[in-house]
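Sequence only, no structure available. Ideas?
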Amino acid sequence: MAIERHIIKVSTTGSDASATGSLVVALPYCKLLAAYMNFHASAPASTDTTLSSPGDPVALTLLTITNSATDAWYYPSIQMDDNAGAAITGAYVPALIHGNLLVELAGSDALTDALTMTIFVEV
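Reply:
I predicted one. Tokens follow.
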């Protein structure tokens, strides 16, 4: 398996503290290993960021960060289940991307490249 790096830039439009923006990035079916979020210097602390994998077979929210424009690393993961479908305490695996990654911003100011995100995926 190979690890790929992708750089994603999302701009926002609208009024201060209520501007929104989104971008769908086409990716192969892969595991999301890490995401570094680098926000525009003028992005307000009211910014909400959501990463999800829309579509087939079902939409999956991978990460939700609310009221933060702080540059940071994130390692989204999903809790594992046992054979009976019960959650296994303390056991997590990387999140699966179903071919597309949706990046959404809300509560921001109108900014070009409000978020520059670098993601690492295992394909």
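The beta strands are 3-10, 19-39, 48-53, 60-65, 72-74, 77-81, 87-108, 115-122.
Hope that gets you unstuck.
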